Amino acid sequence: MIKQVLIGIVCGAAVLTAGILIGHFGITKSSAPSWVEDVAKDVDERLIEKFLSEVDNIQIQENLRELTKVPHMATTAGDEQTVQLMLKRWQDPETGLDQAWREEYMVYLSFPDPKKPNKVTVVSPSDEVLYTAREKEKTYPSDQDDPEVVQPYAAYSPAGHPKGKLVYANQGKPNDYQLLNNTVDLRGTIAITRYGGAGRGAKAINAAPYGVIGVLVYTDPLDINDGLMSDINETYPHSWYMPPSGVERGSFNGQFGDMLTPYLAAKEETFRIPVEDITGIPPIPIQPIGFEDAYRLICELGGEAAPTQWQGAFNCTYNFGPGFRNPSAFNNSDVKLDIFNYEEKKNSSNVMGVIKGSVEPDRYVIYGNHRDSWVHGAIDPSSGTSVMLELTRVLGKMVKQGKWRPRRSIIFGSWGAEEFGLIGSAEYTEQYFTKLSERTVAYINVDIAVFANATLRASGMPSLQNIIFKAAKQVNAPGLDSTSVYDNWIKYSNRTSQANGLIPNVGYLSGAGSDYAAFVHYLGITSMDISYTYDRSKTNARIYPAYHTAYDTFDYASKFIDPGFVSHQAIARTAGNVLIRLADSLIVPLNCSDYAETLEDYLNTAVTLYQHQLQERNISMEPLKRAVASFRSAATHLDQVIRSSDLANETPLTVRRINDQLMLLDRAFLDPLAFPDKYAYRHVIWASSSAGKPTFPGLADAFANTESQSSAWDKVHYHLSVLSQAIEGAAHTLGDVI
Amino acid sequence: MIKQVLIGIVCGAAVLTAGILIGHFGITKSSAPSWVEDVAKDVDERLIEKFLSEVDNIQIQENLRELTKVPHMATTAGDEQTVQLMLKRWQDPETGLDQAWREEYMVYLSFPDPKKPNKVTVVSPSDEVLYTAREKEKTYPSDQDDPEVVQPYAAYSPAGHPKGKLVYANQGKPNDYQLLNNTVDLRGTIAITRYGGAGRGAKAINAAPYGVIGVLVYTDPLDINDGLMSDINETYPHSWYMPPSGVERGSFNGQFGDMLTPYLAAKEETFRIPVEDITGIPPIPIQPIGFEDAYRLICELGGEAAPTQWQGAFNCTYNFGPGFRNPSAFNNSDVKLDIFNYEEKKNSSNVMGVIKGSVEPDRYVIYGNHRDSWVHGAIDPSSGTSVMLELTRVLGKMVKQGKWRPRRSIIFGSWGAEEFGLIGSAEYTEQYFTKLSERTVAYINVDIAVFANATLRASGMPSLQNIIFKAAKQVNAPGLDSTSVYDNWIKYSNRTSQANGLIPNVGYLSGAGSDYAAFVHYLGITSMDISYTYDRSKTNARIYPAYHTAYDTFDYASKFIDPGFVSHQAIARTAGNVLIRLADSLIVPLNCSDYAETLEDYLNTAVTLYQHQLQERNISMEPLKRAVASFRSAATHLDQVIRSSDLANETPLTVRRINDQLMLLDRAFLDPLAFPDKYAYRHVIWASSSAGKPTFPGLADAFANTESQSSAWDKVHYHLSVLSQAIEGAAHTLGDVI
Predict the structure, then answer these.
(1) Is residue B644 exposed (0-12), middle (13-18) or buried (19+ Cβ within 10 Å)?
(2) Considering A360, A418, A427, A430, which one is annotated as catalytic?
(3) Residues A131 and A73 placed together within one structural domain of the fold
């Protein structure tokens, strides 16, 4: 009987268990669809660790070696070689992306004529050539010597043959010419200027109204070499400093994108404005020269001595001119420019690559850098391209092996013709304006990855700050085993935030220094730009000294910028970490309260600088104050919703709603009519400004004009309304959705 | 033993069942979250049936009676009464919305001075007043007689006292004045014009360059009354026709929104442009009068007979003038205008109401109409407001009873100051630009709900056509028991579509005739406008004859426009049906292939009209052809994805992705720089055009200018590129997301 009872119990239990199993697994009615788990997935920290460990400095070094084999100026054969390299890597079946392709634009470029090199000469009254400036930079190591090295020139300088007395015009700023004009009749002169202080093209644009007919520009050793000048033992190849014959090339146009097709993608049949309608380029010939030639010209100048602030590193007094002093070998002689630049429409390629998102393929994280250089471009831009290739190798391998697929889509862009004015990236944003506006979560730009090997430098929208910090804390600082990139960074550059205490200082992207410009200013996409950079206690160089010269080579980069490529590796790890978090986080990791803090700082500055004078004119700052307060309140509320919700168990549409609010935040600051005089600047918080105040750019610029025109107060009031409405609009984007 | 076996089986079965139940319901591990079902819910057809059955014509009639008790011109006490009525209804605990509130804007309006009424007189050479036009309309039924009835006037006409010889200028079109000027020296004259052919303000703007100093405007019985004129037995109160003293009031400005605050919401502290910078308003005084006065003035005119097309319904020859004929009572006399209009900034209110969405509260379907009228405004706009109030009553009750909550949020807008230039709706779109752009699925406008009781009339983006058809098929045509609104409609107005065969003709929203303008042109929101309208075989009236007169009363509406309010009911049912489908459908019911068909029609017309001449100038239409083909291909593909997917079982993010593509389609056609001379027109497909061709408006307008200026070919080419890029952009929005 006991046995029977036991058997009964055992059987009963077995039947019950069978029933439970059938009930649980055999009946599908209310079981969750397979996607329920997928849509709630958050970033995987183990994957990030794996990514960090796979990023390899030697791979980056070898990428750089390959990228810098030949000069690869935009649209040259060397450029095409890099296009093919990118395509090969991104289409690699083992380590490539889902898809990669090229996109071409027919863009307006400017070149020197290889058959008629530009010439700068000193010509005597009897037309004897007394001196000829060097046409090409001197060759040191052989890896710099290539027939394709382009002669130094000023892209978009008109051709022409001006001849006149030389004057020294410091940096070619408006007030430099103004001061010089007080002493010297500038009509018919050639002005020599040094780099810095004003945009390249501005040095000629500012000169022309005074009757100056030609401009030279050089880099003073004071500004680039910490005063050092000798290539016997001081400059490259002995150090990172610029040799005497080094010349910074560059684009001398003032806006971004193809100049003939404003706001339109430059396809073959696209309407082009007449060439004579182009604005912002030099109206008179301009040519860059090395400081060895500048030394000869400047130290022979006559006239009054220039002011102390105009003096450079040469061991002579920099005089105003006009003309050379008496006695001197050049006495009574003119300087003559023979500029043979020509403009041409050429096909420039972007190379695009994609990893398709698994859960939200219609959300993009974009990562980009330009591919074109002036010469070999080891640092600018190939340091960044080497890093990008290493990122795509590591991520591509994980994708190809089936180990990972990001939640959102990742788009990689290798932009063409950046050096001529951010052209490839700008055309891309024009062509794909709608879908990029609708879907892009963020843009990461890594152009020059390593300027120097001291510390991280980051710029971007304040909402990205926290995720950059998080990533930087997980990466070891190069050469410092137990210190993170973050801890190293905060020693070099920091500020105190009311909400976050002492933190590294993240800069703003208010200019157009690299390909982030169209993303930030035209599309209103949350963007960042990072690199490794200088210890400012050790150098005052404007930029790394081989910038845009023939010396920016693999040899230079590997010996003097980042031996061992560990800073490159740190940038790859930091940028890649940010990229993965942006692509994989359930909630897009943008912090809107950090944005509010910046708006409040801007507002406080504006109140301090302007409120008193505005009150005198009955213009109220209250709408602006209310707008910033609305923004703060919406940001605080949204943050609180994010923190207090169990988002992994919420409906995916709730998560998406919050993510849309965060994604669209920067778009909300756009006003296509806010800056009618500034091409493609639409973001009211980050637009460029000439006023140089740490506050709202349009307001600062409008205010600066009130000194000269009294009607300008209307423009101040107008911009205050534009700004207040935009900030209120951004607050609406963040606020409760209904 | 058998018994034991049976007991065992029964027990075993019971235990197994218990196990199954425990396994199925007792263990929660993989059961679906509760929201899985909610997010997949589609529109409920039973709910639509219930909605249709609840819409009550008598409720609409009583709404209208209450709304038209007093005149409710914008910002008057009568307007405030309607604000209170809307708020009371929408805040009703039984039948109200989730929330309702008012929003105020301080807007620039124009009024006649009640203490100094505007005067139109005939003055003899000795300054004797020989004739005075009627100051107010004649009273028939008492419901029209109210001290608050505003004197007929031309809003935004300047004040002034011009006196001069009268001339007849037909409709005041540019070519009317040109023709007249061939015969008559127009300097110092007063021109009398009839409504129609040109915008109200244009009649004065076109006149001023010829030296005309004042303008009169009236409605010719030919244009409004099918020629009938007598109030003894022909016109209201005997029929719907305009009595002899009836005067169409109106706004004489040419753009929409508050004129002092372009692109900015008109808040108290907003920057306002100087009044003298306003463009598009009459530069000389203008005043509307009734046809009884116009008859006296025109039939006494001397000079040559005007052409046949200028002749109206009066039993006299319409002569050009100048001045009155000899002999006549007015011989040698002048016409004098004494206009005392003044401008004033006043607070105008929108009343807003919301039903919050359950699944996607961050998606809006907006339904709106203006609230302000010129006088009692029974038809314009209170017919629409009565319908809106009936919709909110029926929907609000379902919400309050817990029977329904839409998937998406529904926003109702009762706009202020539409009559002065669509001001309330335009200010709303300026203030909430960001979130409306980000989140609005569609806008439904029902202004005048019933012009007449013959047939449906609908205008809107082609993508909405199918859902209007679907709704119209489910509603009985008023007065025709077994015929649907759709079947009745197709008899009155139809076309053959390549894809859809014979279908009712849906118009386009290319002008700024009602509050849809800012939604369509400035925000790029998919919009529609519907009403019941005329049998064109029975009348040639420009519009219902009491339009903007003192006769647009409850008595008029209920006797002559829609006895029994059954056409109102049909509009409420049709519009409400569309509204529910837009708010509740799992996939937003917008058909992008129907949009493609319109683009193809536009393209074919453009090719026929322009290709030959473009080829002669080496301007290629290929980019436009490619863009339209891209759009078609993307639309076909997306349609196919929608049809072939089991969307109810897809991840809600897939559904959302498709819905975002459909929602953002019209936004993709926006280009804020496409029409630099047209205020707030940004939609490249629907912008207004003066060329009158059934094709892309900017292209047609640019082409029209090539006749006069040869440089205009550049503008044609430019606009072709703008247009092609916008259409390609729209194709990207619809295309595969990555």
Answers:
(1) exposed
(2) A418
(3) no
